[in-house]
Amino acid sequence: MKLVVLSGSNVGTKTRTAMDYTLGIVREKYPDADVALLDLAEYEIVFSDGRDYREYEGDTKFVTETIMNADAVLIGTPTFQASIPATLKNMFDLLPVNAFRDKVVGMLVTAGTAKHYLMAEQQLKPILAYMKAHVVPAYVFVEEKDFNRKAIVNDDVLFRMERLVEDTFAYAEAFAAIRKAKDAAYDF
Question: By its UniProt entry, which InterPro entries does this protein fall under (predicted)?
C-alpha cells in the first residue's frame, strides 16, 4: 500500500512534530508499506490557477502526483483562524475534484486550544467528502498543552495516533477488497 503522510502547513513546528510521530508509528507497525512524507514547508508550491495537476512543474507536480498515486493519506493540519491553513487549501485546489476517490484519508489536527476541536468536522471533512475520500471517522486532535520542547508528552495522544494509523490501514484494506469484488462483478 502507498501511504502519504502530509504535513499541511508551511509554518510552525507542532504539526510536523505530530506527523513525525505518526510516521514513526507507520514504519514500526507496517514496515512493508510504501510511505512518503510530504511537508508543505519543504516545497515550493505555486498557487492553483485551474490547470490539470499534471500540467504543473517542479515541486507542485511532484507533490500533487505523489498524493494522486497514494492509496491512503494521513493529513496533518494546524488550526489557523478556526480553519485549515491556506497552504493546505491550495493543495486541495491543485487537485481534481475526484482526487481522493478510492483513497482512505485520516486526519490529525493541531491547535492552540480545545476551542478549535470542531474545525476538522466543519472545515476539513466536508472538503474531503466533496473530493470523494473515504474519511476515517475518528481523527486525532492535539492541543498546545500536549507538546513540550517539540515532543508530544500526552500518552493519550500517542495512543490515539497509533489507533489512527491502524484504522487508516484497516479501512484501506477493506475498501481495496470492496473495489476488487466490485471489479470482479463486471465481464470486461
Answer: Flavoprotein-like_sf, FMN_Rdtase-like_dom, NAD(P)H-dep_FMN_reductase
